[in-house]
Structures are given as structure tokens and as C-alpha cells.
Amino acid sequence: MKTEMPNLPEEIIVDVLTRLPVVSLCRFRCVSKPWRSLISHPSFIKTHLNRNTDKNTNKFERVVLSDHRNWYTVELDSSQFRHHSVAVRLNFPPGQNPRYCEEICYSCDGLVLMLDRRFHCCLVNPSTRESRKLPLSPFTSKPGFTDYGFGYDSSIDDYKVVNICYYDGEADAGCADNVVSVYALKTNSWRRIENSPYDHSCFGHHSGAFVCGALHWVASNGTDDVIVALVLEDEKFQTVPSPTPDCIGDLLCVLGGCLCVFVSQFDPYCLDVWVMKEYGVKDSWMKFTVTYDNIYDSWRPLSLSRTGQVLLNAQGKNLVLFDPREEESKELVVQGLPTQFEVGTYVESLVSPKRQC
To answer: What is the 3-state secondary structure (H, E, C) of the chain?
Structure first.
């Protein structure tokens, strides 16, 4: 006996489908042309993304890793990180595998910005297994002496990659002109904007942290170290109040949607993490200290669970969990974890790195 599918209102179908994981939606695209059109529609993709980034839902955050040739994901329960997880290798379609990853920069709305060994930028969606290699900025004279950033400009509904080149063509990296160019995903093109009035060469190559519509780096104003923000809507630079004049550090990150500064201490060995609870408000900076037994030269906070656990990248060799309440740290056991890796975090989304106008 043949059973027909009930004719449900489209709003009910959308409400159900936007609650599903990306892997299921990618399969459902093949059900019919109407479903493919529905799931590929920008409004559906936006609704699905908003559900995945809603702080009131129990969605999972994922870790993405690359050992320079292959990519892996580790699923984490955002309510409380599990101590035993599995690194699952990602199988990209032919021609889509972004190889030779040298750095995973920060992600935005499920898209991950990657740099390869020749400093080409590549946008990767680990959920849909799509990637896009970006053209080199024609305004960059030396890609190795460059700060990058990636974020979303809500005023024009577009994603932007920012390139700040601080190379003057001479033997030294530092220069007065910090040339800034912006790549727009919809037009697949670069354009130059006003130079940064700050010196970005003091701290070497770092990726910008995207918070509240702006990308952030540590730079110098000529006399002091400052936290610099480039607002993506008007593409203007401004400063953000730092925790203390003598405690800016040289690296920024994002934890729980908040801008963070982290500073390594060596006597004793620990990591001071400052969190700006209310963006732009100096008095909202709060500090916690990560203590650890194993000594690593490089630490980077990656994610914050709802229970306050902090996930950290330890020198690209281990993932470490720190519990501020217990003041304890332990290495996360991950089956299939590469021996050396680049790492970042992302949320599941259908946002395509190949989107056009």
C-alpha cells in the first residue's frame, strides 16, 4: 500500500528542517528540486545559522584541525567538554581539499579562514566540505609580513577578509605605512582602504579576533601598545580600552563571544586570560589564570563551555581542558588526534564560501 507524504505548511517544514544538522540537510537537498531550492535559499541558511548560534540552544561547538594535508573535526558538548573524544577525518570532494594548511585563523558563521604555505587565503566550510582559494591581494608586497582577519559585515550582508601589510620593501619588516586591503566574498575581489594609523609590525604576524562587528589586533600607537579595532561596516580604525596599561599582551582571542587578551607568565608558569564581559567598557575586564604542570611554549584559548571550562591549544600538540573553579588542567584524550596540527573552532552552518551577489 502506497503512503503519501502529508502536505505540511512550508513554515512548519522550515521550522523542522532548520533544527537539523548540516549533514542531514545536505542529503535532503537531493530529495527533490523544491527541497533543494528551499535548503539553498539565503533566508533558510540564515535561519539555520541563527539557531546554531543561539546561546539558549544546546548546540554543539566543533574543533577543526589540520595536519597540513588532512582535516579533522572533534565534536564538543558546549555544556561541558567531554574528556574523551574522537577526531573524525573530513572527506572533501575532488578539488575541494584545502591542503598545505600553515595556519587556521579565526572562523565566522561556520566559515574558517586558512593560510597555506604560500600565504594564500582559503575559506573552508568543514560542515559542507566546501572551500574557496582566494586571490592574493594586489596591494600586498610581502605576504609573510601581514596580519589577517575575517568577519561579517551585517550592513551589506557580506563576509570580508582584511589584509594589513607592514613590509616596506627593505630588509626590515617595520614601516610607517601599514597598507590595508579588504576582500569581499560576494564580489571575489580586493580593494584598498585607508592605511592603518597604527604600527602592526611590533608583534609579528597574528590573526584578528572578530567581536561585535570589528576585527581586533594588538598594535602600537608610537608610544604605547594598544588594542586596535577595525569596524567592518565603515572600515575605520579605533582603539578599545585595555585591561591595564602594562597588561595588553600580544595575542587576542574570542571566548564565549567576548574579546580576550591572554598573556603568558613564566614565574610561575601560567596563562593570564582577560575577558571583556561588556564590549568597549574598560571596567568590564575580568581575569582568570590558567595553571598547568606541563610546560608549553605556546598556549591559545579556543573555546569556553557553559560550565566555565576552557579548552586550550597547547603548542599544536595537545588539547587541554582547564577548570577555573578547581584550578586544574588536564590533557583532553582525543582518539585519532594528529601528532602536530593547526586548530580552530567553528559552528555548523550552510554558509557557502562560494556565495556570490
So the answer is: CCCCCCCCCHHHHHHHHCCCCHHHHHHHCCCCHHHHHHHCCHHHHHHHHHHHHCCCCCCCEEEEEECCCCEEEEEECCCCCCCEEECEECCCCCCCCCCCEEEEEEEECCEEEEEECCCCEEEEECCCCEEEECCCCCCCCCCCCEEEEEEEECCCCEEEEEEEECCCCCCCCCCCCEEEEEEECCCCEEEEEEEECCECCCCCCCECEEECCEEEEEEECCCCEEEEEEECCCCEEEEECCCCCCCCCCEEEEECCEEEEEEEEECCEEEEEEEECCCCCHHHEEEEEEECCCCCCCEEEEEECCCCCEEEEECCCEEEEEECCCCEEEECEEECCCCCCEEEEECCCCCCCCCCC
Q: What is the mean pLDDT of the chain?
A: 84
In the structure, what pLDDT confidence band is assigned to residue 248 with cuts at 50, 70 and 90?
Answer: low
Give Cα 133 to chain centroid, integer Å: 17
- What are the pLDDT digits (tens) for 313-331? 888 888 888 888 888 888 8
Residue type, 204: G
Measured distance CA(95)–CA(276) in Å, rounded: 41
Place of cell 604576524: 205
The pLDDT of residue 161: 97
Cβ atoms of 278 and 247 closer than 8 Å: no
What sign for the dihedral angle of Cα 123, 132, 152, 110?
Answer: negative
Q: Bridge partners of 225?
A: 220
Of 113 and 140, which is predicted with more confidence? 113
**Half-sphere exposure of residue 94, counting CA atoms within 13 Å on the CB side?**
0
Q: Give the percent of the chain with pLDDT over 90.
A: 42
The pLDDT confidence band at residue 173, using thresholds 50, 70 and 90, is: very low
Cell of 109: 558563521
- CA distances for 298 relative to 211, 217, 264, 295, angstroms: 23, 18, 8, 9
